[in-house]
């Protein structure tokens, strides 16, 4: 096994609140050319894990002596990696700058320690770019690894992504021409929808609109909310409620729009429900 022969220099963990168990999916990690050259020359190992990767050396020297030697013979002072995502929706469901292509830079020297001295949450720095093929760059400084080695630990660098909060809008369309009565959206959570109000869609169809308005809700891989569309019809002087649509859909990250008609720009999730 790799652990029997190699010594772990550091680990990377990438978390995301959109996914189940907060473990980010669909990422690939590519060493830069200079780091790839070091990996081959000094027999280093990058071992993928469910959360990211572990980085190993089989040196018989101390980590400090080993890294100082690499700097001496190569002039390099850090290990550098580029991460890409294969999830086409990543930029939609992740809380990243709106309408701006940028690469996120993470540096091992820019972090805050959490829980213990080994776990270090890296702080993002956004750099505008015309490239859309990299999600983030990671730079792990040799000096930071040397400091950890002096403290007899192997650092865990953690990157944290957050699911995007959006305003949810349900457009209820009556395609049966039946009497729907008074419509409302009910749920067991504390979420409240405003509406309905009648609106005309771009294709000319009439719809009843419900909106979460100022209450922005996070997107998620697995639905976190269970909303029911309720019809209330008065019969013989008594209001009778009926579940017209049980379990309204949660948003598709691809069906969003940018709304600038607020003090702050917000992202809106659009959902069309035919009853």
How much beta, percentage-wise?
35-45%
Radius of gyration: 25 Å
Spans of at least 5 consecutive residues with low confidence: none
Topology order in helix (H) and strand (E) letters: HEEHEEHEHEEEEEHEEEEEEEEEE
Sequence of strands across the biggest β-sheet: 3-4-1-11-8-7
Query: Count of helices?
Result: 5
Describe the secondary structure blueprint for this structure:
Blueprint: H1 2-5, E1 7-16, E2 27-31, H2 33-41, E3 45-48, E4 52-57, H3 63-74, E5 78-85, H4 90-93, E6 102-107, E7 111-113, E8 119-122, E9 125-128, E10 136-141, H5 142-150, E11 156-161, E12 165-173, E13 182-186, E14 194-200, E15 206-211, E16 217-218, E17 228-235, E18 238-245, E19 256-259, E20 266-274
Helix pairs in contact: 3-5
Explain what you see.
There is one protein chain. This protein has 275 residues and is mainly beta. Helix content is 14%, strand content 44%. A six-stranded mixed sheet has the order 3-4-1-11-8-7. Strands 12, 14, 15, 16, 19 and 20 form a six-stranded mixed sheet that branches. Strand 17 (228-235) and strand 18 form a beta hairpin.
Name the descriptors:
mainly beta, six-stranded mixed β-sheet
A few lines on this structure:
The protein has 275 residues and is mainly beta.
């Amino acid at each position: 096994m790799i652990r029997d022969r190699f010594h772990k220099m550091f680990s990377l963990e990438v978390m995301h609140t959109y996914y189940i168990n907060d473990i980010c999916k669909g990422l690939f990690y590519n060493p830069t050319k200079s780091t790839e050259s070091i990996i081959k020359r000094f027999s280093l190992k990058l071992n993928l894990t469910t959360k990211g990767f572990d980085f190993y050396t089989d040196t018989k020297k101390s980590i400090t002596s080993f890294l100082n030697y690499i700097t001496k013979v190569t002039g390099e002072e850090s290990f550098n990696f580029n991460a890409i995502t294969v999830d086409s929706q990543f930029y939609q469901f992740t809380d990243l700058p709106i309408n701006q292509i940028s690469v996120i830079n993470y540096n091992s020297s820019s972090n805050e320690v959490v829980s213990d001295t080994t776990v270090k949450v890296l702080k993002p720095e956004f750099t505008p770019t015309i490239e859309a093929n990299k999600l983030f760059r990671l730079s792990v400084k040799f000096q930071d690894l040397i400091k950890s080695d002096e403290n007899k630990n192997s650092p865990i660098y953690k990157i944290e992504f957050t699911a995007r909060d959006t305003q949810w809008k349900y457009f209820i369309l009556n395609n049966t021409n039946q009497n729907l009565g008074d419509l409302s959206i009910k749920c067991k959570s504390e979420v409240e929808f405003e509406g309905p109000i009648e609106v005309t869609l771009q294709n000319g169809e009439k719809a009843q609109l419900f909106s979460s308005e100022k209450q922005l809700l996070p997107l998620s891989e697995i639905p976190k909310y269970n909303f029911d569309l309720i019809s209330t019809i008065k019969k013989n002087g008594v209001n009778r409620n009926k579940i017209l649509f049980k379990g309204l859909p949660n948003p598709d990250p691809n069906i969003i729009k940018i709304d600038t008609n607020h003090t702050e720009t917000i992202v809106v999730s659009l959902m069309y429900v035919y009853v």
